[in-house]
Design goal:
Blueprint (H helix, E strand, L loop, with lengths): L1 H37 L8 E4 L3 E7 L2 E14 L2 H9 L1 H16 L2 H6 L3 H16 L4 E13 L7
Antiparallel strand pairs: 1-3, 2-3, 3-4
Length: 155
C-alpha cells in the first residue's frame, strides 16, 4: 500500500508540474517565438567583382595630356547577378570605357580632377544600361592614378 501511495504522490507531482509548465511556460515560449519571427534575417553580403584597371587617355588639343588609370570593383547583389555580369563583362567594360572617355572630354572634370561621386554615378548608369536595373548595386573605385602623357614636341 505504501508503494501505491508513493506512486500516487509522484503522479500528482508530475501532473502538477506539467500543468504549471503548460500554464506558465507556454506564454513565455510563444513570446520567444514571436521575438524570433520579428528579427529580420541578415541580408547576404554583396559580392565584389574586381575588374582589370581601366586606362583612359585624356586628350586635349589633339594630344594625350595624361593617362588616367582606375581600379574598379563592382558590387553585385547575388549569385545570379554575378553570373549575368561575368557573361557580359566585355560589353560592360566597353560601356565603362565609353562613359569615362565622355566624362574626361568635359572641361570641368579635367580641370577639377576626377570627381569620384560623379564617376561612380555615371558608371552605375552605364552598367544599368548594359545589364538592366539591380544587377550592379555599387561601383567601388579602389585606386586612381594619373600619369603624364606625350611629351611636348620641340620645334
Amino acid at each position: 500500500m505504501k508503494r501505491y501511495a508513493i506512486l500516487l504522490v509522484l503522479l500528482a507531482l508530475l501532473g502538477g508540474g506539467g500543468f504549471a509548465a503548460w500554464t506558465y511556460g507556454m506564454p513565455i515560449y510563444e513570446k520567444m517565438q514571436a521575438e524570433k519571427a520579428e528579427q529580420p534575417e541578415p541580408e547576404p553580403e554583396p559580392l565584389l567583382v574586381s575588374l582589370d584597371p581601366l586606362l583612359i587617355p585624356v586628350i586635349e588639343n589633339n594630344r594625350v595630356t595624361y593617362h588616367l588609370t582606375l581600379a574598379i570593383s563592382l558590387e553585385v547583389a547575388d549569385l545570379d547577378s554575378d553570373e549575368k555580369l561575368r557573361e557580359s563583362l566585355p560589353r560592360v567594360i566597353d560601356a565603362f570605357n565609353t562613359e569615362l572617355h565622355g566624362l574626361m572630354s568635359l572641361r570641368f572634370v579635367r580641370e577639377g580632377g576626377v570627381e569620384l561621386p560623379l564617376v561612380k554615378q555615371r558608371l552605375l548608369v552605364a552598367g544599368e544600361r548594359e545589364l538592366g536595373p539591380g544587377v550592379i548595386t555599387d561601383v567601388v573605385i579602389t585606386a586612381v592614378d594619373r600619369v603624364r602623357g606625350q611629351r611636348e614636341t620641340q620645334s
